[in-house]
C-alpha cells in the first residue's frame, strides 16, 4: 500500500480529493437516463417490457414475481443460508427497534399546545441489483428498518433473470416485502417514482445499484425521497502495536474485494505493525479468489499513514470520516469518545467489519466519501416523518399578538399581521 | 379562486402537476453557477471580492461583519422587535429541545455490545438572503436547532449591503451565530462548501435563497450536506361550516402575499363557507399592501375544492401533502389522527398559520411540493449524526462464525468470510 506523509490536514485533504475522483460519475449517462424515465412516465408497463427485452434480453409477461416462485425459493435455498438469514434478521430487528422515535407534546403556557407526530412513510420502494451484486444481506438492511418504522407497503424491484437467486427472494419474504416486481435499471426507478399500470408509485426509494440506477435516483429525487447515492466502499483502520497484522490485513482485503475503486486505509502509530500488515496482505492476496479485484484496489487505493500518537490517529480519521471504522486497539471501547465522524465503528481486535455487513444488526447502508461528516447509516429515522402541530386558544393568540405583528410588520408582511389581528375582538 | 371538481385522486394529481410546474427551476442558471463555484474554489477571497463588486456593486475590504456593527444593531433595532425576537427564541428553544435524541447501547448476547452514538455536525453554514427577503425569523429557525444539537461553529453568510437590517444581525447574535460574513449568491455557497482564506469550510449548509443560491446548494450537495431545496410556499386549509370566513381568507392571503407562485388551497364540505371566503378575500385584498403579489397568487394558484364529507377532506389533503395545514374545525385536535402528510399543522379557529412562522416555536422551514410525503420540518435531527458501534468478544465471533461465513460465501465474498475465519484458533 502507498504510504502517505504530511500533516493530518494535508493527508486528509489529499485522501478526500482522491476519494472524490473515485466516486466521480459518468455524466454521459445522464441523458440516456432522462430519456428512459420520460419513456416510462408515458409508456408505463409497455415501456418496462421494451427495456427488459432491450437491456435484459428477456421477454416479460408478468411483471410481478409470483407467490409460487417465492415459495419455491424456500425449498431451493441452502439451509445454512436460511438459518443465517433468520438469525441476522433477528439481530437487525433488535438493533433497529431501539431507533424508534416517539412523538411529544407540551403546553408551554396557558392555552398553547405544541407537539410532534411521528408518521411512517406510506409506501417505499427497494432496489435490489441482479447478477453477482444481488446481496440478500442488503435486502434485509433496506427492508427491516422500513418495516419497523411502520411503512404500510414495501415494493421490491430487481432486474428480470432466467432464474432468481433463491436467497434474494427468501430474504425479501423474511423481511416483509409486500410485492416483488422484476424490473431493473433506470426504468425500474422511473416505475417506482411515477407508477405504472402494474407498479404502484412509492414515496421513497432506497437500495444500491449501478450507475444507471444511481443516476436515475438522483433525477427522481424530489418527486420521491431517496436514501443516498453511495460512492465506492471504504474502511479506515486505526491500529496500534497491540493489533494482529493478520486480522488487520484480512479486514483491509474484505473491503478491497468489493471493487477496484474500494479504498482501505490503515492509520497506525507502529511502523512495525505497518510493515507486518504489508507482508500479510501479500500472503493473503495470493490465495484470494477475488485477487483480480482486491490486488489493484489495495495497490492503487490502499493507503498507510504513520501517526505520531493516539490522538493524532483519531484526529486524522475524523477528518477522513470513513464509512467503516475499525479501532484495533486494546480497550477500544474507551476510545469511542474520540470519534466524531464515521458511519459504523468496530471495536477491538475481534470485531471484524464483515460482522456488521451481515450479522451484528447494525445497518450496512452507510455514508461514503466523507459524508459521515453530515449523514448517517440507514435506519428507522429514514422511513418516518416528523409532523409539527400547534394549537392556540383565543386568549393565547391575543397575548402573543404584539410580538407576532411586530415581527410581521418588520418583515414587511402585512397579511401575516392581519391574520392575527382579524381574530382580535376589536375587529 | 378556481374551483376544482373530480375524484380526490384526480384532483390531487392535477394539483401536484401544477405544483411541480410552479417549482420548476431555470436550467440556464446551472452553467453560470458551475462557473462561479469553480472560480471561488480556485480564487478564494479574491473571487468573492470580484463577485461582490460585479453583482452587489460593493467593494469589500473585510469579508467578516465586525463585532462593532453587530453591537450597534442592538441600539438601532426597534425595541418591540427585539422583545419579540427574544420571546420567539425562547419558544423555539423549548420546542426544539424536545427533539434531542439520546444514543443507546445494548448487549443482545454474551460478549456482544452494540450501540448508537449521537454526534453534532461540527460546522454549519446558514444562508440569509439580503434585501426585502431578509427575514430575522428565518435566522432563528435555522440557527437555534443547530445550536441545540451542539454544533460547534455556526457561520452565517448574507449578501453585502450598504446597511444591514439591524434585526438580522440581532437575531444572529441572539441565536448564537459564531461568525457572520458578507457574501451572497452562489459565490457564498461555494465559499461555505470549499472554504476560502477567510471563510471556514462547513459540513452542512441550510437556509433559503434565490435561484442562484438554490442551484449552488444542489451542486455542492455531497461535498456538504444541505437542508432542502424549497419550492414556493403552500397552505392547505380544511374548513367546515364552523369556520369563520374572515379568518380563513386572512390565512389564505398570508400565504399568497409571499410570492405570486405561492399556493393557497381551501378544502371544505360547506359551499356556504366557500362562497363567504371568496367574498372576504376580495374585501381584504382591496386594502392589502402587497395586493400586487397576493391577488395574482390567489387568482392563478388559489384553489377551492368542495368535498363530500370530513373523511374525504382529509383523504384529499393527505394526497396533497401541504407544507402548512390548517384544520379550521371545532375540536380540531381530535382530527390529528387523520393526518398522514403535512409539514406543520395548525389546529382550530384561532391558530393562524403566521403563529408558526414567527412565534409558537415549531420550525417554519418546511417541506414543499408534496415532499412532506417523505420529509419533515427542519429540526435538531438535521444537525446530528447517528454513529453505530459494535464490539464482539473472541467467543462471540466464534459463535457467529458459521452464520456469517455462510452468508459471505453465498454472496461470493471470500475475503469477508476469511476475515472471520482468520480470528479462529484453528488458524
UniProtKB/TrEMBL annotation, chains A, B:
It catalyses: L-histidinol + 2 NAD(+) + H2O = L-histidine + 2 NADH + 3 H(+). Pfam families: Histidinol_dh. Its EC number is 1.1.1.23. Substrate binds at residues 233, 255, 258, 324, 357, 411, 416. Pathway: Amino-acid biosynthesis; L-histidine biosynthesis; L-histidine from 5-phospho-alpha-D-ribose 1-diphosphate: step 9/9. The keyword Signal does not apply. This is Histidinol dehydrogenase. Gene3D superfamilies: 1.20.5.1300, Nitrogenase molybdenum iron protein domain. GO terms for biological process: L-histidine biosynthetic process. The active site is at 323 (proton acceptor), 324 (proton acceptor). Catalyzes the sequential NAD-dependent oxidations of L-histidinol to L-histidinaldehyde and then to L-histidine. It comes from the Bacteria. GO terms for molecular function: histidinol dehydrogenase activity; NAD binding; zinc ion binding. Binds 1 zinc ion per subunit. NAD(+) binds at residues 127, 187, 210. It comes from Streptococcus varani. InterPro entries: Ald_DH/histidinol_DH, Histidinol_DH_CS, Histidinol_DH_monofunct, Hstdl_DH. Keywords: Amino-acid biosynthesis, Histidine biosynthesis, Metal-binding, NAD, Oxidoreductase, Zinc. The lineage of its organism: Bacteria, Bacillati, Bacillota, Bacilli, Lactobacillales. NCBIfam families: hisD (TIGR00069).
Amino acid at each position: 500500500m502507498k504510504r502517505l506523509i504530511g500533516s493530518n490536514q494535508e493527508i486528509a485533504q489529499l485522501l478526500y480529493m482522491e476519494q472524490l475522483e473515485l466516486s466521480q460519475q459518468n455524466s454521459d449517462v445522464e441523458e440516456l437516463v432522462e430519456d428512459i424515465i420520460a419513456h416510462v412516465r408515458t409508456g408505463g408497463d409497455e415501456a418496462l417490457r421494451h427495456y427488459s427485452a432491450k437491456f435484459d434480453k428477456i421477454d416479460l409477461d408478468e411483471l410481478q414475481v409470483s407467490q409460487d416462485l417465492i415459495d419455491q425459493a424456500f425449498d431451493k435455498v441452502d439451509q445454512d443460508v436460511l438459518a443465517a438469514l433468520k438469525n441476522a434478521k433477528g439481530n437487525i430487528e433488535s438493533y433497529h427497534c431501539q431507533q424508534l422515535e416517539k412523538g411529544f407534546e407540551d403546553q408551554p403556557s396557558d392555552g398553547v399546545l405544541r407537539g410532534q407526530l411521528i408518521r411512517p412513510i406510506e409506501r417505499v420502494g427497494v432496489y435490489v441489483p441482479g447478477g453477482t451484486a444481488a446481496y440478500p444481506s442488503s435486502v434485509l438492511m433496506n427492508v427491516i428498518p422500513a418495516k419497523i418504522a411502520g411503512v404500510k407497503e414495501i415494493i421490491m424491484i430487481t432486474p428480470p433473470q432466467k432464474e432468481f437467486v433463491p436467497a434474494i427472494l427468501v430474504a425479501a419474504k423474511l423481511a416483509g416485502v409486500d410485492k416483488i416486481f422484476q424490473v431493473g435499471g433506470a426504468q425500474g426507478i422511473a416505475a417506482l417514482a411515477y407508477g405504472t399500470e402494474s407498479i404502484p408509485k412509492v414515496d421513497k426509494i432506497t437500495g444500491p445499484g449501478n450507475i444507471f440506477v444511481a443516476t436515475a435516483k438522483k433525477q427522481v429525487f424530489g418527486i420521491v425521497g431517496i436514501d443516498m447515492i453511495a460512492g465506492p466502499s471504504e474502511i479506515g483502520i486505526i491500529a496500534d502495536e497491540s493489533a494482529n497484522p493478520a486480522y488487520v490485513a484480512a479486514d483491509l482485503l474484505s473491503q478491497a474485494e468489493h471493487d477496484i475503486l474500494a479504498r482501505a486505509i490503515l492509520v497506525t502509530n507502529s511502523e512495525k505493525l505497518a510493515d507486518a500488515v504489508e507482508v500479510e496482505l501479500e500472503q493473503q492476496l495470493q490465495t484470494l479468489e477475488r485477487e483480480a479485484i482486491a490486488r489493484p484496489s489495495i495497490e492503487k487505493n490502499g493507503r498507510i499513514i504513520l501517526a505520531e500518537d493516539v490522538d493524532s490517529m483519531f484526529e486524522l480519521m475524523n477528518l477522513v470520516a470513513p464509512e467503516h471504522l475499525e479501532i484495533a486497539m486494546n480497550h477500544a471501547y474507551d476510545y469511542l469518545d474520540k470519534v466524531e465522524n464515521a458511519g459504523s465503528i468496530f471495536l477491538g481486535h475481534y470485531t471484524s467489519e464483515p460482522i456488521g455487513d451481515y450479522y451484528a444488526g447494525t445497518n450496512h447502508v452507510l455514508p461514503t466519501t466523507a459524508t459521515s461528516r453530515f449523514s448517517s447509516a440507514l435506519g428507522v429515522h429514514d422511513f418516518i416523518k416528523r409532523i409539527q402541530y400547534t394549537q392556540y386558544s383565543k386568549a393565547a393568540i391575543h397575548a402573543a399578538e404584539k410580538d407576532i405583528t411586530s415581527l410581521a410588520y418588520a418583515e414587511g408582511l402585512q397579511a401575516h399581521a392581519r391574520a392575527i389581528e382579524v381574530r382580535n375582538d376589536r375587529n
